[in-house]
Amino acid sequence: MHRLKKLVKLLLVIGLIFSLNSCGRATTKKQTKVLNVIGWSEYVPQSVLNQFTKETGIRVNYTSYSDPNQMLSKVMSSANGTYDMVLAPGMYVQTLRKLGKLAPLNKSDLPNYSNLSSAALSKPYDVHNRYSVPYLGTVMGIAYNVKKVKQVPTSYQDLLKPEFKDNLVTVEDSRAVVGSALMATGHKINDTSQQALSDASQYLTKLKKNVQVIDGDSPKTSLINGQVSAGLIYGGEIALAMENDSDIKVVFPKQSTYFCYDVFMKLKKAPNSANVEKFMNFILRPKVSVKVSKAFPYCNPNRKAQALLPKQLKDNPAVSVPTSVIKRSQTVVDLGKRTTKIDAVWNKFKNSN
């Protein structure tokens, strides 16, 4: 009888341990109902994140940045597993791959990938489309207020005119701004030769006299509130400014223009890896993609979503970028160690008086 009691006690203890282990496993499973994203500020509608959470039970923790260099610094300085995925300019596919940070996507979990336009795929930074999903396209255009600008600026050189002294805004994006300066002086957007960078730096020195605001979060704001009369900023920001003030218009420089897609990427050792494709596939649903465009009217690469866009977005050249502009556009690629040369030009521009 005494032995029987001991046996019963032993079985109870074993049962308790098993129960605790099961709870531990259940807790671990529950913890995977999360997705950690690092991406541009003011770029993914909270309503879209909320809808994803409502449908899947997966909570999205969104960490924002205003400068891609800031994003890279955060990803590289954080422990593995801090972030599951990145939303950044396409060139960072090359950058993060070289640093051993990216994992290939599981295409079988992305049935909505077929909704993407072929024009947005097979880019130099991801030729075989293994590591990225295009989110929105970004073009650099010139925004101006018709009531404050005497003559429509049609080239980069026009932005150097005295009438724009201390009256311009530009984005806080080294590759977009330095790239525009390179194209303004007749060079290719990825040219890092001594002559090209010297010419670009001289252009930016002149431009800086006219720049009042460098804004990586919301460059449209200084246009809307009348703080500046014009700016060299992203098309989506121009479109939002136009919605707020009908006096704000867009024009694209007659030279080449900066254009790139911001893309989603999956990080290696992502603790919530399976949730990455779930979120990407959700974003690629046409109606969800339209909701994104309504909130942030950048160039939409989702061909099925394009057909559903409201007329005001279809007719706005800042959103539906003209084919002629796309054809003369250039995109940035990873420059490896030569990136420091771009950074030097950018820092000189940004920190000069």
TrEMBL record:
What are the protein's UniProt keywords? Periplasm, Signal, Transport
GO biological process: one example? polyamine transport
Signal peptide interval: 1-25
Q: Which GO terms describe its molecular function?
A: polyamine binding
Instruction: Name the major location.
Output: periplasm
Tell me the InterPro entries matching this sequence: SBP (IPR006059), Sperm_putr-bd (IPR001188)
Q: Does the keyword Aminoacyl-tRNA synthetase apply?
A: no
Subcellular location per the Swiss-Prot or TrEMBL entry: Periplasm
Q: Which GO terms describe its cellular component?
A: periplasmic space
Positions bound to spermidine: 42
UniProt name for this protein: Spermidine putrescine ABC superfamily ATP binding cassette transporter, binding protein
Species this protein is from: Loigolactobacillus bifermentans DSM 20003
